[in-house]
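Subject: two folds for Thursday's group meeting

Dear M.,

Sorry for the delay on this. The cluster queue was jammed most of the week, so I only got both jobs back this morning. I'm pasting them in the order they finished. Each block is the input sequence followed by the predicted structure tokens. Could you check whether the formatting survives your parser before we put anything on slides? The first protein is the one we discussed after the seminar.
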Amino acid sequence: MKAVIFTGKERVAVEDVDEPRLEDASSAIVEVERTSICGSDLHFYWDEFNISQGVRPGHEFIGTVAEVGSEVESLCVGDRVMAMGLYGCGHCSGCADDRPTACTRGWVNFGTTLAVPGGQAQLVRAPHADHVLRRLPTWISDDDAVLMTDVLPTGAFAARNAGIEPGSTVVVIGLGPIGLSSVANAFAYQPARVIAFDGLASRRGRAAVLGAEVFDPGEAGVVEQVLSLTAGVGADSVIEAVGRPETVVAAVSAARVGGTVSVIGVLTEAFPVHPLTLGTRNITLRVGTTDVPLMWKRLLPLLEQGQVRLADVFTHRLPLTDAARGYEIFANRADDVFKVVFDAQS
């Protein structure tokens, strides 16, 4: 079968590799149909952690169950499924509560180590299949199903952590796929307004379609604009979806006294926010990793009812064999890209 492999810094290959096998009775093999590039995949593409060589990426994928182990109870061959990118053992108290980040045996992410190949491939083994995979509802589109593996749940997690109340003011900094999802999920809490910032006009346009008031952070700075828009008070809730120290600082400064800041951007550097800054202004700061299945419980009804919706997110649809070009476009923000999805079987 064919699979995407990182062969060095900013080097991607599609190679023929051995097909996965059932290694235990609780696993399943999935024939991947659609799989997309996540912003977090770029940290491995750029080899920021010096561990990318040979890694087979991909945690956002949907497909059809091709084989199941004898102990798998909730799935059958032929079921169409979506996967949670981050998973636990499937048996401990944390996993039973749909919180794999609380797994007592530690959690794992598809496509981030040599030991756990990801879903940017024609076939993938899903360990603990009853825990990791969910049968797709008949009403869901393929695009929404792919987004439900990461983008939509992560935005839901960011919005929940922001403590949004009806009638409140929400700020979202960064309007990539996760930031846009955060905007969509924020509106489900019925705030009075959502103010959104991004330096790219095309991304601001996507948030405006959802109903956000959009601004360029380069014009006057995020903090200055938020204070101007809120009569000097600041926002009740701020979501940071960039993952940079300077935007975390801006998020804290843009929050009102007693406000909440939710950081969902992937941070690889420390950010200079002094505890006294938080304490003297009674700021709640939340940084976390998404428990996808917990967010599925909230999102599936909202998605079915049309209360949360992202449209036309995938600007580039490519065959899996064109993965190197897909990564190059996505990493360089070329061709007005927003998100790339691969057809795994072509």
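Second protein, same layout:
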Amino acid sequence: MSLYTDQKYVGLLSPRLDLFKQVRQNLWNSRCPICGDSSKNKSKKRLYIYEKKQSLFVKCHNCGYGSNLGNFIKELDPHLHGQYVVERYGEGTKHMVFGKKEKIPEFNFEKPKFKPQPTKINLPSIDELDGEHFARKYFESRKIPESFKDKVYFAEDFREWAQEISKIDYSNLGKDEPRMVIPFFDMEGKLIAAQGRALGKSELRYITVKVEESYRKIYGLDRWNPEDTTYITEGPIDSMFLPNCLAVAGGDLQTIKMDKEQTVLIFDNEPRNEHTVKKLMKAIDDGWSVVIWGKERKFKDINDLIMSGLLTDEILFIINKRTMRGLEADWAAREWRNVQY
């Protein structure tokens, strides 16, 4: 009867819950009356009422509020809560059992554990743009895999969007700059950063912003399997062509805490770039496995190889063949940095 009573009082409470809706049996959804949910998006609903062990519980995925149904009713309507207690547990604070007075049982509910909801990006994806849209044309010109069309987005004004999603002040960015947006998520799908690729004239081709100062600029964590060999590239677009690949935007590849035995660092093919050479040599000294590119082809990065007509399997063959460590990597790197293209 307790579940039946809970269900009844969800119905009685529903007029107080904005955008209330029953999702399925014993699962309801509405805006959260505790935190007010999103002030910017009035259609967001992140409060859930759900069933567990023949009782109903409440959880908000925005503010983290959680309780059993009774305490939730008490928060919103103390009078209704009094009726709920009487109906669920009996009259008063005690009830009769076989002629004896017995206290209403005290319930110590385990706090429910929820998997965080992935962050929704409030921008049109490349897949949603018209076929003639310049952002879609740029995406396709780079031969980025089709599977990323719904994972890469377009912002008409990148600065405005960055200001909306970040706690950091990015008001110094260029105004009204259209950019292709690549979101960075953590392993649970929470937005941690984003990179904007300029689609017009701009002094900065790439701008990477963080949601919070403490977050790392690591792309691909939401599709990463730590049990498999991990490749790490310098740019997010390069990582889209390789399996189980992460990218570090604006940082040193070896700064990620990873198992060196299962990780391969892939630097850009820039033997005349002192900064790239310095980072590569340090990675070798630190014991990482690295790719030392050969001198047979002239290219800058993985995307260049794709643009030249190579397939992912062919690139992986080259990567595995050119992956080195220790003295072998040191000698090969010294020869590579003298390559003249």
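Two things I noticed about the second structure. The domain at 224-341 is CATH 3.40.1360 (Dna Topoisomerase Vi A Subunit; Chain: A, domain 2). The CA atoms of residues 152 and 182 lie 5 Å apart.

Cheers,
T.
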